[in-house]
Amino acid sequence: MIRTTLVVLLVVALAVVALALRGEPGIADLTWLGWNVRTTAAAAVLLILLFSLAATIFWRALVWIVEAPRRAARARAEVRRRQGADALTRGFLSAAGGDGAEARRQAQRAAGLVDDTPALVRLLSAQAAEAAGDAVAARAAYSAMLGFAEMRLVAHRGLMQAAIAEGDHAEARRHADAAYALARTAPWAWRAALEAKLAGGDWAAALELMKGALERKIVSPLVAERARAALLTASAAGLEGAGDERARQTALENAQTAARLRPDFAPAAVTAARLLAADGRLARAAQVIEAGWKASPHPALWLAYRDLRTDETPRSRAARLASLAAFNPETREARILMVEQALIAGDALGARTAIAALESEPLTRRLAGLRARTASALGERDEARAWIARAADAPQEPDWSDIDPDGQAFAYAADDWARLAAAYAETGELIHPRFERRERSISDLPELPAAYAESSPFIGAAEAGRPPIIDDGDFGEDLLPAGAPEPLPGARPRRAFGPRAKPH
What we know:
Distance between the termini: 117 Å
Shape: elongated
Low-confidence stretches: 450-456, 468-504
Number of strands: 2
Strand content: under 5%
Number of helices: 24
């Protein structure tokens, strides 16, 4: 404003000077309180301008003096604001870096400096306590935030994480639900609520959460579809053993829906087929397995397909399994199935021909057992024993581990289903809980007679690098891998190795 006034006065002064220089100064006559002043108009205007300028300067100086205390207070507030912002910045960086002591010191400093953003100070206090490992102080800080509407989401998240760290899953679920109710578009809140439902085995609630996430575009349609298939299968598996007929029908409907949604999800196809077979709908059960086999072959599928009928001859069963393999013949599992069906039909030569297609496959315990069974069917018992010995050091197949020793596929607990649903939804791949826990699976090794007859094929196998077994005719118990049949009652005690040949 002072600058504007000076500019106006300067313009007027220049105009008056210009008029005076043109020879038209004019006359100004002022009479006041007996005084009479007569001068030129230009001089009068200049005097007035000078007086106005002096009055303005005086007024501004007076105002500056009067406002000095307020100005000093603003300056001090600005210094506090900068110091408070610096304390908050340093505190959050220290908390993120795990320096709890420094974060706490900066939080205390910020508490005395910051007045306009108390929410940030409370948040820093909570995070500083977490970084320092003080769970009680962190929980108290987050609990205090619940009293402020704008901080409740952060408070519920902090309290949920604290409850998870303490193993209080019920409290964690409560805070996850509260957070999701506050912010249904926050991905972390949705995920926390979903994980809480999965941990509690509440498949129906998890399905509703997934539906809401799809509507709000938190997850993609593909993820939602896979999650729905896995959750419906988990629900069906939980209801399958119920004695209530209504529960069994619900399980059947859920399993069929899951199999239609994702034919490549083997647990859905196997569960649906098992329930359909129990309901007497064998043709429909076969169709479900065939669709699953076309999408993604799994050993549990052909085992379920094999067991659909019990009133057929071995050759009829083998022909039916061969027709299943033909739906996806180029896959590894289909080539294995061709060997299996040949062994079921008693076609040892056909099994040898079929197993040749697996020569390039890495040796697993299951493949070693399959080769041992083929050799046994061909009458090459010593060759079979050599393959069984090699199976002891061969790795187990994850897919084969999904079948328990009783032949039940995907016999998982609620925790396993929860992990499987989450993993399959995100990646589209199966996890194998039984394989991770190294649990016994269905036996993949044949049971051979104990008698040992020395033969050149066995010696040839040993010379080719396969582990020889030189004993009195029995396998050592410590050579039989988990899942191998136990010795028959009355059998002679087994020894690991017989006397070694003396070196020459």
